[in-house]
Every structure is written in C-alpha cells, then in structure tokens.
Amino acid sequence: MNTRKVLKIVSGGLIAVATLIEVRSILQPNHHPVVKIPTHNQQQRSVFTWAKTFFERFPKLTKVQADSTFPRDDIKPWDWNWDNKEPQLDSDNRLHVFSWGDKKGSVKGTGSRHLLFIRHGQYHYADSDKDCHLTQLGREQLNFTGARLKQLNLPYSILYYSTMTRAVESTEEIMRHLPDVPVEPTDSLCEGAPFPLEPPLENYKPTEDELDNDGSRIEKAFRTYVHRPSPNQSKDSYEIFVCHANVIRYFVCRALQIPPEAWIRFSLDHGSITWIVIRPNGRVALRWLGNSGHMPPEKISIS
Amino acid sequence: MNTRKVLKIVSGGLIAVATLIEVRSILQPNHHPVVKIPTHNQQQRSVFTWAKTFFERFPKLTKVQADSTFPRDDIKPWDWNWDNKEPQLDSDNRLHVFSWGDKKGSVKGTGSRHLLFIRHGQYHYADSDKDCHLTQLGREQLNFTGARLKQLNLPYSILYYSTMTRAVESTEEIMRHLPDVPVEPTDSLCEGAPFPLEPPLENYKPTEDELDNDGSRIEKAFRTYVHRPSPNQSKDSYEIFVCHANVIRYFVCRALQIPPEAWIRFSLDHGSITWIVIRPNGRVALRWLGNSGHMPPEKISIS
C-alpha cells in the first residue's frame, strides 16, 4: 500500500467523522442554560413537529454550508466629509481648519445633534393640499406624540414643520404640549418624490419632472438641516422636524450613507418618531425608526 | 447692433430677473396655511435672529444650487431572489415553480411574515457569559416589552431566543406575559461580529477569526430565519426573536439589501422592538427599528 492510498483512506475517514459530527450536532437539542420558562411550552413542539422542522431545514442547511459567508471584498469606506464639514489640516499641517460657513478655527465641538423626525398623522386624502385635513385619529396620534416628546423632557431648541396642511395640523397638536419651543415653517420639507425607488411600486410612479423638482428640493433640505454640529457646540442639541414619510426615509438613507433608492424599503407609522444622532466628528447613528410605541396599539396606522 | 449683442443683453436681463426672483423667494416669509400655534412662539425668532439665520444659510444655499441633485445613475436593482425562493417559470414557460425545500407547485401565498426582533435588557458585563446577568433595570425593561407584546395582541406562532444568559433571562421576562407562545432556544442567534464595520470603532475591533466564525454563523441564521413566507401561507404570521444588537442590525441590513458593513450605523435601545415585514413576493420593509416607546423615558438605556 503506497502513501497515496494511505492518505486517501485517512482523508476519507476524516470526512466520514466530520459528517457524523455535523449530523449529530443537528440532531442534538441545542445546549443552553436552564430556562425557567413554563414547561408546557417546551412540550408544545411534539416529536412530530420537531422531525418535520428538522427535515424541512436539512436541505437549506446543507446548501448554506457551501456558501455561508456574505462577500466582504467590496466595502465602501464611510465618507467622513459627507456634509462638507470635515476639518482639514492647514498649510502647516498642524491646526484643524473647519470649513463652516466663513468661520475657521481649531475649536473641536463636544456636543451631538439629535434630530427627531415626526411623521404627520392620518389624514383625509383630497386633490388639493388645503383639503387634506387630519382625521380624528390623526389628531389623536399627534396628541400622543406631543405628550411623548414632552415626557422625554429633552431641551428642544426648535421645531421645523412642513407647510402642508397635515403637517401644520400635526404641529398644532404637538405644540399644545411644547408651548415654549420656537417653531419655524418651511416649504422645503413638503412631501414629494425624493429619488427613484427600488424596488419600484405598481401604484406610485413619480415622473422625471417630479423626481427632478422634488428631488433637488428635498436634497437641498437634507443639506440644510442634516449635518454635524458646529465646532462651537459644546452640549447636545435636540431639534424636531414635523414632516412626511418620503422626506424622512430619504434623509435616513442619505444620513446613513446607504443607497438613496432604498428609501422605499422603510415604512413609518403616523405620528412616529425617527431619531438621527450626529456626532461632532460626523459619525451618524439611526437610533429610532418609526417609533410609535407611545401609542395604544389600536391608534397605530400607516396609511 | 448685431444679433450677438442683442442675445447677450437679453440673456443678461434674464439672468438678472432670475436672480431677483430667487433672492425674493428667500427673503419672503414662506407661504403656508394659517397656523394656530401660540403666537408668542413666532415672535421668539426676532428680526435679528431671522437676519442671522438668513445670512448664515445664504452661502450654503448658493453652493447647493450648483450641485443640488444626488447622482441617480448607479441604482442597483432589488434582487427579487435574495432568499433563493423566487418562483421560476417551468420548462413550458407557464407554471410558477417554487424552489421551497422539496415542494413544487403553482400556489401563491397571500400571507406576510412579520419578524419582531427584541434586544435583550441591560446587563452586568462579565468575562464569562454565565455571569452576564440582567441588571434590575434590564429585568424591568423586558417586563415592559413583554407587556407591550401582549398588548399588541398579535397571533405569535413562536419565540426563538439566543442561548446567552442575558437573552435567556430576557425571554423569561417576556414569557411571563405570553405563557402560551411556543419557545425555541438557538445558539445561532448568539452575539458576535457579523461583518466588518464601517466606519470602524476605536474600542471594538473584531479579529479575522471572529469575523469568519461569527460571520458565517450569523449569516446562516439569517438564511434560516429571514426569508419570504411559504407559498402555502395564506395568513400573516408573527414570530418573535430575542437576541442581540449586532445580530439584529446585521439582519436589518441583509433583509433590506443595503451594504452589510452599515450595521454599525444603527443603534438599539435595550428591550426595543425591531419589526421586519416580508411579503409573499419577497418585498421587505423595515417598519420599526429600536422601538422603545412603550417604556417610561427613565427606563431607556443603550449600554
């Protein structure tokens, strides 16, 4: 018997053992700490159910094992200068120079910006915006949201609101809870078609004109409102934006540097809170998306 | 005067008029419906503040106008077969054939899968997992989450939980509210390093080995649990997963088909609910991320 044959037998044996171990590990119940969960629960999954689940999963598992890792060779680096406010080295390669308006200096901020985006409430659809009033439910939803914002007790510096009727009426409800927060209306946050959507929808196909006009307006609004704090900002700041689902979803994609066409893959409950945090160094985190947990379940709606 | 000169004068005039209109539109207060918001609010922004804001914004606005639209020439199409369960045409080009385990048929499902991912509660960090118990606050957080899941009153079919101590203890708290929901432990949902993170973090640098081992395990878990409903599923189904921040954030990226390295750009409150919906045709929506609105503000924590 030559070396080649020995190797063949040994490797064959190893493959057989590995297969046995794999099959055993699938057949065995998972090892886990003792769970103090009502025991009748564990029993609800009968041997039959277990066997069924096992055989259903088996082809999947074997398939996945041949291709178990998602490719990680094309990672796009985070653009630290995404908001055009990344500090640059000066000509002596020493001081940080901030391209912040006309201001230049070496001060580094220590406060973060917290942007809280509120979707308006449920409304009666009409051809003209002035007739698109909130429903009774829509009023109630924003009443809950106003109460929650008050309860969160954050030092809000301003509330910006879209000038569309449903956003104005939503703002009215919120302001009953936050009478001392300054407000500012802006057309730039009105609803529109921010970007082509992928995957497309059968019943929503924005025209090229809409994409051009709304898209450039909403992108301009993004650049106006979503950026890192000023280098002079030492404390965390909290701003509220009462606006619309498409605007909020597009802002989320742009702020997180994920493909903007993905905005349609997010959905937002009426009156929900979406919270974006921007650190002084330009790092961004999405902390809440569509947070509507402050509403009783029967008051939650999407459309 | 030749034609060239006339054209120059006319176009010069047009540019001047356009500039005037633009400046006017910026100077004018926004047109918006009458807002019934406490009037002292509007007055809080004095003429001085307004002028300051205006002049601060002006350089930004002019800058943005030259480059106002985000590029939309490299949109990556949604992969309808992301979960390897997209129906295929048969050899006669007529019937839909589903590659669903061994099952093949032309039945099209009408029910969606709702996956509710719960992050465990706050815990005491220790070197050994068995010593990583929930804090008193962590127990309270999951008690609120269990109560909320009960209150949502959805027909949960199963609760899967990670076998790490903090997830097991979190599951115990939830199960006090949902005693009739079947539970199933799984090692595959344990915490780990699912994928390289971008932007990187100073204090969390997973090794290549961790990325390989955790990454392939968590990717396998994704393929096991996150996929469209079976073509036989006629009603919406609701499944609960009690696990960990990295796992949930990675699943969100993979399900939404956004770059997996972006998982670090999301952050999740303890005990929060993240809700992914998968339609029968494979369309995916993220409805909630980090929904912790069911907790009193003083009970919310991240780390």
TrEMBL record, chains A, B:
Pfam families: His_Phos_1. InterPro entries: His_Pase_superF_clade-1 (IPR013078), His_PPase_superfam (IPR029033), Mito_Ser/Thr_phosphatase (IPR051021). SUPFAM superfamilies: Phosphoglycerate mutase-like. Its EC number is 3.1.3.16. GO terms for molecular function: protein serine/threonine phosphatase activity. The keyword Hydrolase applies. Keywords: Hydrolase. GO terms for cellular component: mitochondrion. One of its GO terms (biological process) is positive regulation of mitochondrial fission. Belongs to the phosphoglycerate mutase family. BPG-dependent PGAM subfamily. PANTHER family: PHOSPHOGLYCERATE MUTASE-RELATED (PTHR20935), SERINE_THREONINE-PROTEIN PHOSPHATASE PGAM5, MITOCHONDRIAL (PTHR20935:SF0). This is Serine/threonine-protein phosphatase PGAM5, mitochondrial. It comes from Fasciola gigantica.
